[in-house]
Amino acid sequence: PPAPERVLFPPTFSVSEIKNKQRRHFMFLRWKQQQRKEKLAARKKRRKEREALGDKAPPKAIPKTIENQRVYDETTVDPNDEEVAFDEATDEFAPYFNRQTVPKILITTSDRPRGRTVRFCEQLSTVIPNSHVYYRRGLALKRIIPQCIARDFTDLIVINEDRKIPNGLLLSHLPDGPTAHFRMSSVRLRKEIKRKGKEPTEHVPEVILNNFTTRLGHSIGRMFACLFPHDPQFIGRQVATFHNQRDYIFFRFHRYIFKSEKKVGIQELGPRFTLKLRSLQKGTFDSKFGEYEWIHKRREMDTSRRKFHL
């Protein structure tokens, strides 16, 4: 039998004991490399064992993640719940789902937006059909909202920025609310995305809402659905995805590429961004006297890493 591989490091080895910084860094890299080799060897060994066993191989173990170990939330929605069905039939979004209203969106910014925020708004308007970009010019939101309602806008999106970077998104459903405020991060414009596709067409995209399981998540998912016309034009092969994972909402805009009858690829069109819900308010935007349905309070709510609200 071949001689066992010489172990480079003793079992009690600790990189932090090395005083010289360069030597410590070098030894740490070597240690990581060895760990990687051992992991790879163990994986190969397991694969060979599974192949040898064939059909008798035990089922693959499901890895433990924060997501699948989440603490049960008592507000998780059951699709067959009569109370939920009644709420959905009578809430502020019901006219959209009953096809009585057609979405018409106003996209605006904070005062004096910089170039990156302006470009982001323009690209967002190509993703959401029937959306119009207007610049604030110092107008207060309280004055903008009645004008939007008078012109039959169904939703208002406000993109906030800090130090030239878009960092917040306010989404208000008109005329009666609710209003959601999100923190925005990881914004990538089209030109910053590698291997992106050609410019999106004017077809109505398909909308995918993933993993909005609680009552709060359900409301937020319905809010996003209301931004897009109810009848997607599948001929355009475009899809807008809102994927909720650990209370972060990842937005992606793709196009399907059909390679053959069985093979399909996807091509990202952009932009992309990530949202985190800060608050949900009843009615339209009112920072002073508004009644809040839900506010994210970090110290009180984030007691466990496995507790999620959406």
Automatic annotation (TrEMBL):
<dbReference type="GO" id="GO:0000470">
    <property type="term" value="P:maturation of LSU-rRNA"/>
</dbReference>
<dbReference type="GO" id="GO:0005730">
    <property type="term" value="C:nucleolus"/>
</dbReference>
<keyword id="KW-0698">rRNA processing</keyword>
<feature type="domain" description="Brix">
    <location>
        <begin position="103"/>
        <end position="286"/>
    </location>
</feature>
<dbReference type="Pfam" id="PF04427">
    <property type="entry name" value="Brix"/>
</dbReference>
<dbReference type="InterPro" id="IPR044281">
    <property type="entry name" value="IMP4/RPF1"/>
</dbReference>
<comment type="function">
    <text>May be required for ribosome biogenesis.</text>
</comment>
<keyword id="KW-0690">Ribosome biogenesis</keyword>
<dbReference type="GO" id="GO:0030687">
    <property type="term" value="C:preribosome, large subunit precursor"/>
</dbReference>
<feature type="compositionally biased region" description="Basic and acidic residues">
    <location>
        <begin position="49"/>
        <end position="58"/>
    </location>
</feature>
<dbReference type="GO" id="GO:0000460">
    <property type="term" value="P:maturation of 5.8S rRNA"/>
</dbReference>
<dbReference type="GO" id="GO:0042134">
    <property type="term" value="F:rRNA primary transcript binding"/>
</dbReference>
<dbReference type="InterPro" id="IPR007109">
    <property type="entry name" value="Brix"/>
</dbReference>
<protein>
    <recommendedName>
        <fullName>Ribosome production factor 1</fullName>
    </recommendedName>
</protein>
<feature type="region of interest" description="Disordered">
    <location>
        <begin position="33"/>
        <end position="67"/>
    </location>
</feature>
